[in-house]
Every structure is written in structure tokens, then in C-alpha cells.
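Help wanted!
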Amino acid sequence: MKFDWQGRSRSNSLVVVGPLAIAMTVILALDTFTDYAIAAAVFYTAIILIATRLLPQRSVVVLACISVLLTVVSFAFTQSGAYEVGLVNTAISIVAIAVTTYLSQKLVAAEAAAYEARERLLRIARVTSLGELTASIAHEVNQPLTAVVTSAGACKRWLAQDPPSIENAERAVERIVKEASRASEIMSRVRGLTSGKAPQKVRFDLNDATREIIALARGQLDRNDISARLYLRQGLPMVVADRVQIQQVVGNLLLNAIEATIASPREPRELEITSEAEGSKTVLFSIADTGVGFRSTDAEHLFDAFWTTKADGVGLGLTISRSIVESNGGRIWAQANEEGGAVFRFSVPSDKATRV
Amino acid sequence: MSAELASTKTRPQSIVYIIDDDRSVRESLEDLFACMSLRTRSFAAVQEFLGSKLDDVPTCLVLDVRMPGRSGMEFLESMSELGLQLPTVVITGHGDIAMGVKAMKDGAIEFLTKPFRDQDLLDAIHEGLEKDRLRRAKERDAADMRERWAALTQGEREVAKQVAQGLLNKQIAADLHVSEITVKVRRGNAMRKMGAKTLPDLIRLVDRLHSS
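Answered by r_m:
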């Protein structure tokens, strides 16, 4: 399945295998009918490199094995030339084929990893834009609500007239019913969008998950000349939570910290990311920045929905983070950093907590 | 409420403009205003509103913020440049304090977040219509006064100006090289044409003309 990311279907394989087989036959013929001194078998590496681009990994390995086999066969059937030279050339060819195969496999794996990282980044970006999404949802819902409230007011007034204007009042009530169901439709559409799925809890290493997110944000850190110091404690118990969700929280806190640091003139621009055990049943994650921080009076609002200190913020990042952490059985809180800036911490239960 | 009803019924010629991209909001607003005997004209966008001819009656504008095309806030800001003097009630589904402050600075008479209390909106609308009615009355008075001033002869205007400066008939006569009788006649004509019943009335009218 790892190869499927390249988006190729297996039916293409036949189209690819044909020309490759012909090329291999040509190499085989050359290798067999020329002198021992001519190491035509080295050209199999070209076949392998082409196959790496076009075929699944396993097929490439099979192809490499066939190439080695054919090299040996050619060696056996070659008529002319010094035997020793042939032996050395054959050995060199086989080593070249093996090394090429190994390196090409590593290349594919690296590309797959890069692709996965990009995918994950996109997923996180989607969560960040969830804030904007929610703002527009609020606007969407507010329209029918406004119509409902206003129509209700109109209805009341039509009825209060002397004599009451029943017909107009009825029309207002009809509009209320219509608009109320429009509002509820919007709500169910939203529920479908975010589909309050229960977290998919798995055991995982919080340090690894954190490093992956930091790797994703590396570009942003470097661009803004921010150094991230990692104090990830070794030998932490595994945590049990939804890995992707927790990574979203880490990503969100990291982005917040980066933004706060950018917004502050304070030097040096440094983030401190720490993981540690809190007792045996909880793992604690914290990220400290030296950014703009928050006023002590704001501390109680930080996690409120639609509360933000950022000019272009929507005020949902921390709200979502809190609901994620809590649905995974943890807590999230913020403190002022003694050296200026803010510290955000969250806890997640370790596997020792859930085994009880 | 009955007093409010009565007051609106005596001035049925005023009009409330509504600019909101949401049809259901427009309809409910139209209905709410209809039961208060207020005439309405609705528009789905700022452009549509600007393309229509405005009525020469006291008006008030209900303006939504988030709309396709030009936003309500942008329109509000550009209103004075466009020479529009419309008392405006801003309604928005996603307002914050900063936006509210900006709207009020740009001359809005009220800033309401959706969904709002119908009474709050009606109060603001009545305030707006009243404001516009007063402004129009004042403008009409000023225009009227300028017209009457224009009907005065050159000599009558000179006399009226000097009277307003507090000069005596004798002094005016000397200054204009005319007889005191002539000054008195011109002063009388000026008062009659300007519709001033007493001398202080005339002085006030001339003052207002020069200050406006």
C-alpha cells in the first residue's frame, strides 16, 4: 500500500514490464555474446532505476533478483574472454545491481515519508482553518435566527393591533417555522462536517509525535529565526490517546507560540518544549515561549470560544485544543512565563493509567 | 407603544432602506417595519442601493456588514464622500467591540449584533428618522431663508447687515449716505421679506445666514 501514494494502479505494471523485459533481454544477449571483459550486466542498474519510478517496491526487488540471476547465466554461457576477468566483472555487476536496488528502495521510502508529512500538515492546516469555518457557520446560523427573532417581534405587534391582523401574524409565524428549520439544517450540516467522532485511542510515544510536529513546523521556525529547545524526557511511559488529535493540539500550541514570539520584540526568540512524567499515570507536555504572553486578567478567558488576542484570530484554536485534550482524558492550562511570554501545558493519561 | 404607533402614523411618508444580502432577514425586517406602518425599500447589495434613486423624504438605513461585493463597513466609511447623509443602523452577525467603535466613528447611530431585539432596532430607526427629519427641516429652513434673503434689494441687505451688527439708524444712514427715513423703510421691508416679526428676529436670521 505504501506505493499507492504515487497514485499508480497496478494495471499499468504490464505496460511497463513489457519494454523492461525487452531491454533486459537485449542486455542479456549483449552480456552473453560479448567478451568476458565487457561488463554489459551493469546496465541492469538502469533497468532497476527506471523500475523504481514505475513499479511497486516488491516488483523492483524481484526484478533485481532476476537481473542477478541473468548475470550469472550470461557468465556461464559466455564463450570468449579470460575466465578470471569474467568472474570479477560478474561480481562487480552483481554488487552494482544490489547497491542500486538498496538505494532506490531507500529513496522511495524517503519520498513516501515526505508525502505523509505533507498530508499531515494539510490535515493540521485544515484544523486551523476550522476557526474560520466556525466563524462563517456562526454567521450562517445568525441569519435565520435574526429572521426568527424579528418575525416573532412583528407577529407580536400584528396581534397587538386593534383589531389584530391575524393574516399578517400567520405569515410571520410561517416565516418563523421556515427560518427555524433552516437554522437546524445548518446545524446538522455542521455536525456532519465535524462529526463528533470519539477519539481513536492508541498507545504511542508522545515524544515521537511531538518531534514529528516540530519537524513540520521547522520551516516556519527557521523562517522567523526562532529556536526550539527540546527537553523530551527519555523513557517516558507510552500515552493512550488519539495520536492525530494530540498532534493537532501540539501543532496548535506550537503555532500559537510561534505567532506570540513573532509579535514580540523580545530576544532571544526561543521556545522550550518539554515532556515529562507526572507520577506514573500521566505524561505532561509543555511549551514555553518568550512572546507577547497574556494579561493575568485574560487567563480565565484563554480557552473560551471566540475569545482571542490576535487581530485576525477567531478564538477557537485553544477551545478546540481543550475539547480534544479533555475528550482524551487530559487537562490543559496556561501560565505566565516568569521570563515573559506564556507557558501552555497539557496532560495525557499514560498506558499505566488506563490499564487499571 | 401606542404613542410610538401614533407618531409614526402621522408621518407615513418616511422610508426605511434595508441593505442585507439575506432574503429572509430582509423579509422579516420589512414585515416588522410594515406593522409599525413604516414604508421600506430593500436591497440585496450596496451596489443595488447606489443604483437606485433615493426618495426625498425622511429616511433611515439598516445596513448589514458582511455582504458579497462591498461590505457594509466599507460603504459606511465612504458615505460622507458620496455626500450621503443617511442615519444608519449597522446590523451584523459577527460584530466585536472594535467593529462597533469603528461603525460609530463612521457615523452610525446604532450598532446591533444579530439576532437583536426588535425593540432596539425600532428605537434606533425612530431615532434615525427623527434625526433625518430634523436635518431636512433645518436644510429646508436654511434654503428658504437664503431664498428670502435673495429677494431683498441690495440696499435692504446692506441695512439689514448693519442692523444685525447693532448700529443705530443714524449711523447706518451716515454710512450709506441715505436719509434716516430711507433706512427705516428698508429695515421695514427687510423685516417683512425675511418674515421677522421683531427686530431681534431679524438680527437672529441675518446671523444664521452668515454662520451657515
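OP: Thanks! One thing I noticed: Chain B is about 60% helix and 10% strand.
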